[in-house]
Amino acid sequence: MQIRKTSQLLIAAVALTISPFALAGTTITGAGSTWVYPLISKWAATYAKETGAQINYQAIGSGGGIAQIKSGTVAFGASDMPLKPEELHADHLIQFPTAIAGEDLVVNLPGIKPGQLILSGPVVARIYLGEIKKWNDPAIQALNKGLKLPDMAITVVHRSDGSGTTFTFANYLSKINKTWAEKVGANTSIAWPTGVGGKGNAGVAAYVQRIRGSIGYVEYAYILENHMNYARMFNREGKLLSPSLKGFQAAASHVNFVTAKDFYVILTDQPGATSWPISGCTWEILRVNAPKETNTEVTTFFNWGFEHGQQLAESIGYGPLPENAVTAIKAYWKEKLGI
Amino acid sequence: MSEDRAMEGGGTAAPAAPIPSQVMPRRAWGDLFFRGLTGFTALFLLLVLIAIGVALWREGWDAFRTFGFGFLWSTSWNPVTNQYGALIFIFGTLVSSLLAMLMAVPVSFGIAFFISELAPHWLRQPISSAIELLAGIPSIIFGMWGLLVFAPVFGNLEPWINDHLGKIPGIGRLFQGPPMGIGMLATGIVLGIMIIPFISAIMRDVFLSTPIVLKESAYALGGTTWEVMRHVILPFTRSAVVGGIFLGLGRALGETMAVTFVIGNTDILSASLLMPGNSIAAVLANEFTEATTHLYKSSLLALGFILFVVSFLVLVLAKLLLWRMEKRIGGGVL
Lengths: 339, 334
Description:
- The structure holds two protein chains of two kinds.
- By secondary structure, chain A is of the alpha/beta class.
- Chain A is built from 14 helices and eleven strands.
- In chain A, strands 2-1-3-11-4-8-6-7 form an eight-stranded mixed β-sheet. A three-stranded mixed β-sheet of chain A has the order 5-9-10.
- A two-stranded antiparallel sheet of chain B has the order 1-2.
- Chain B starts with a helix and ends in a 5-residue tail after the last helix.
- The relative contact order of chain B is 0.13.
- Mean pLDDT of chain B is 86; it is low at 1-16.
């Protein structure tokens, strides 16, 4: 333990010394989620231009981010899975959400164009449990009356690396399907009943593009960028939707950020006609006991993001938080950190 | 060594009166210093090895304590319920490496045989350079090539494998599965291609190191090229050849990136070589960053320790094999 801490300090020291900006102004260090990395790096670039403060964010994964903030080697950690209030309390941490996003299923089916295939939560759960094995299964056919689905085996593709995307997806299936909730559950890594694993969104996308009859889940931003063959989904209220930022924000509008303790909210399977069923959120984690200047630097950055970075966020597929959530976050900072 | 020197020094110095004290000690000091320095570097390696083993054991201790020996043969790997077992990964590591060796050893032997004995002189250098170049390619490139280029092609071949090899009674079960292009067999092939350069480069070097006198004597007795290879070169170089093979095996066992890309990363035990699986190195690479609970991380490090032990056992096995071969032949040639 001691050795690890020392080596981390050493690495941090080396990184600081060789960073050309170390002397130019303040440098805020953060680590964690790969999912939020594009957003933070976009914000950081503009923020540095406007204020001179540098953000040094390492996308080492949510688990790594949580470990780093706990050991105090970074100023903030980022995770796609919220920590439970008890756990936060025990380690003297606080957390607040930053942005909203969503994910969808993508398929490789000959003759079927993006958005043509229609799926529902129960059907997706049964596919991922390995209960539905063929594309022309009556359950899928019933949702797609006009489409001619091939007599082809379904190859399930999932993430092989631990990921917030997996957490959100598995959490959704847990809410939809009892068997899933009992046998599999939700976490950043889970024991998949079937299928093959690809590393990262890119790995899942590569498998789906190469294996005929495959189905996988990827982030919305990734679908947008790569024009993938996405499916439409029925949401909780039985409305058929295509994935969109509006849908993710609609889902977010149905959870109460203001009353949730430590912003422990899950955005999957929310009510509302326009709510996208597989929506998610990303959180930043701070240490209560960190020097006040450090925490102030971090909150100033994210405050700037909330106020000036929303358009930037939307341009790369992240939805802004609802107005009342931002207000609640500022009150939370005041209460917990005195900032 | 230094004792010999001292004796030698003593021998020459004995007839003369007491030695002028500056000359000898200075030589001895230099020797001693050099000996200490080289000894330290060798010892350092040993220390690092032990330190790695101890560190892995200590960090993995929680997993071993929680699951006991069951950790070794449990097939459950479930981060949600915090249940961990290593069997799927041990199996995947061993099978993929075995497949790689089945492919790489004969091919490497062929390459080395051709270069050292059969190839016209002008062709030797280009092939040798190609091998060395291949050895320098980072493994992730092999992984990407495996996923993006090889897997689609192999996926088209798999229906044929299903229909022909899959029909053979008994071993047919090994060759049945969906035509995905990724899985255990694909991993074995990609790994095999990856380690060919290492094995063939060593084999070539040692084949070329066989004294020409030996070879020419054999040819003079009327030996064919194959007979010379079989009865002169191979016996002369066998320990280095076996060493080279096991070096390749060591690489295959620990290979991470190339395997992660093509093995399928599925924690399900399957008899078929066409089905996806998982390996120790691959699961470490995939799950380490997001291992949030202590037991989870400990289990991953315990896997690391198992890989360490497996590699060690492989080396011991190689030494034993060599030792038995030497004994059977009776002291060996030369």
